[in-house]
Write a structure and sequence with these properties.
2 copies of one chain form a homodimer.
Chain A (H helix, E strand, L loop, with lengths): L6 H19 L2 E2 H8 L3 H13 L3 E4 L13 E4 L4 E8 L3 E8 L4 E8 L6 H16 L7 E9 L2 E2 L6 E4 L4 E4 L1 H9 L5 E5 H12 L8 E6 L3 E7 L2 E2 L31 H4 L1 H7 L8 H12 L3 H25 L3 E6 H8 L1 H11 L2 H4 L3 E3 L7 H16 L6
Helix pairs in contact in A: 1-3, 4-5, 6-14, 8-10, 9-10, 9-11, 10-11, 10-12
Keywords (chains A, B): Kinase, Transferase
InterPro entries (chains A, B): ATPase_NBD, ROK, WH-like_DNA-bd_sf, WH_DNA-bd_sf
GO molecular function (chains A, B): kinase activity
């Protein structure tokens, strides 16, 4: 337990709490802010004035309420003017977006990513997308930072991608490469795609209000973003959540990480295509074709989907016993697998997970869908703003 | 992010921070407290006076330092007067202790626990031990609460033991039973033994200063106390850390939890005795006999220990990939297994864990030894005190 904050810290913390509230919940009356934050009216007024002074929020009279008395002013995040850049480096595509305070996607670009493309090659492509988007940015807009979501293990201290088994990246400095290319003088924060997608769903998606959440994200491999006790679980170096590399078969199939029998060899893209007799195929479309075939009655595809679903339930049961979450979210290709094999997953969960750990678990698909990595990457940038709002710009 | 604390909360938080410092680090000069806590001298003086006023700390002149100038007063926790009761319900024994503020074991009693003994039967035995200890309590002493460590899954809200596969407990209200028997008007907090042992090692043991820790605790079964980002991972209902019930073999040996192939069927008491050809034996002594036999060159015992060590490494590798800890602690019977099979464990870790997750992991045995559950149970009680020190008694 730390000592209580100083006067300066108190002000920063209260500014952050107010700005976070309108960032997450949108326009809010001063009266509601007073109640929700437990601060008095004059403090709310002073904090709002400070935030408005640097252009982060605006105030306006509310619409006619029909009630008597002076209406409470509405505090609104400056979503069109205050924004972060968000990037997503995925196995087969690159995305860039401009996300407003409040979480709205203001603009977005998508590019193919040839397999094997490294950070130094990806950065100029993403920078080109940003240049295009900059043409639509109002002259008085404020860019508060940039965040990157990437498939791979990201060192927290400097955003180095240590290992991306599915992207082929080893020690790729994507944050530094983007910083050099963009020529924008804002901090760039890098996070694992499952971590930042979980962060987004926890901040403003299906897991809002849940303190213990496992967000499984499948692309070619499988990772997890984990919220424990209301906070992101990152681990010592930032590499926590590599659930795809839990071994589920002692001498199983070789995995791209160099080991064998990892969970993702059974539930990831390769495992499912192999089980469906389509080892030569790859990519999201090939995977979706298996689900389609199963849907249309193809026996081999059905067996493959059931089998992968059983393995998905097997691993989720382990995670439920270890984390006792209140929600498990199935994102990326895990969403498709969950929807196609929910019965197998539930059955395996019921037989493998401890009753007490399982009793309040809700299984869900993401609310933010494919935008979650971008929204989460932007949240990384907004976190810095919320920690010290008046330090903006 | 919450708004900043109010004036009252600031005072409570600072009182808690100062008391925690001397509780963990022992007697400390005012000058050191000023530096460490980052508060000014007059604030430290006022906080110390408040804490001394309710009998939680005392102040005295330091021993002669030989330095010039007025020496800084030393603030000392009232370890002999301020205490918590701690209980530990284990598979084959019951323990009760009186633990002073500062973490010293002031008194301790141990009783056999016949297998099958339920909460309503255990409580009077523990209450008897407390009655004995009460004779040695100074008349002006302050009991701040009681904590219980128990092998089993503990519901956080009310301390109900939902399931203790190795104790045979199902929905046993040990906290309520102890409260009724003891007739002491103090709050009783119940926690899983691995959780509270981890808490103790994190507060004042081998993991002091580590923010990401896995403490494996073996008795008959195996559980973990997990510290993530500096905080205990409890999960939604309090059941997190049931790592012994990760499935490592798809259709493995039956487990006492009702499922099959759980990790503890390979590394727990039954698994090791079975592998050593001693399935009829049970208990800690039988287990130690296997390690002894292996040490003396018994081939079957050596094979059993190597095999169990390999499985121990297998599961730890999974946890390393999921949590990216900086320390793994082997407690209870896991300590014996770790010491007997360190080579197998390290080898399996090196081949199964991801390099980045593994690079800063230290493998350790507990510092607090067999007292960790008791010290951790007392810490549960001290937590309440530290949250609001002036509410004592």
């Amino acid at each position: 337990m730390r000592p209580a904050p100083s006067q300066d810290e108190v002000r920063r913390q209260n500014l952050g709490a107010l700005l976070r509230h309108v960032h997450v919940h949108g326009a809010t009356t001063r009266a509601e802010l007073t109640t929700t934050l437990g601060l008095n009216r004059s403090t709310i007024g002073a904090l709002t004035a400070d935030l408005a002074g640097v252009g982060l929020v605006s105030e306006e009279a509310p619409r006619e309420t029909g009630r008597a008395g002076r209406p409470s002013l509405v505090v609104r995040p400056e979503s069109d003017r205050v924004f972060a850049y968000a990037y997503s480096v995925e196995v087969d595509r690159l995305r860039a977006a401009r996300i407003g305070l409040g979480g709205a996607v203001l603009d977005q670009r998508e590019l193919d990513r040839p397999r094997g493309l490294l950070a130094a090659e990806a950065a100029p492509l993403l920078a080109g997308a940003v240049k295009e988007m900059q043409q639509g940015v109002p002259p008085d807009a404020i860019c508060v930072g940039a965040g990157v979501a990437v498939c791979g293990m990201v060192r927290r201290d400097d955003g180095l991608v240590r290992l991306g088994p599915t992207t082929g990246w080893v020690d790729e400095p994507i944050g530094a490469a983007l910083g050099a290319e963009l020529g924008i003088d804002v901090p760039i924060t890098v996070g694992n795609v499952a971590d930042v997608a979980a962060f987004a769903e926890h901040a403003r998606g299906v897991a809002a209000g849940c303190d213990n959440v496992i967000y499984l994200y499948g692309d070619v491999g499988v990772g997890a973003g984990i919220i424990a006790g209301g906070r992101r679980l990152t681990g010592h170096g930032g590499y926590g959540g590599e659930v795809g590399h839990m071994k589920v078969v002692r001498d199983g199939m070789p995995c791209e990480c160099g080991s064998r029998g990892c969970w993702e060899t059974e539930i990831g893209e390769h495992g499912l295509l192999r089980a469906a007799g389509r080892s030569d195929a790859r990519g999201r479309d090939a995977l979706l074709a298996v689900f389609d075939a199963a849907d249309r009655g193809d026996a081999r595809a059905q067996t493959a989907v059931r089998q992968a679903g059983d393995w998905l339930g097997f691993g989720v049961a382990n995670l439920v016993n270890v984390f006792n979450p209140e929600m498990v979210i199935f994102g990326g290709t895990m969403r498709d697998l969950y929807l196609a094999a929910a019965a197998q997953i539930r059955s395996r969960l019921n037989s493998n997970a401890l009753g007490a750990c399982l009793e309040h678990v809700r299984l869900r698909t993401p609310k933010l869908g494919a935008d979650a990595p971008l929204i989460g990457a932007a949240e990384l940038a907004f976190e810095r703003l919320l920690a010290d709002p008046l330090d903006v710009g």
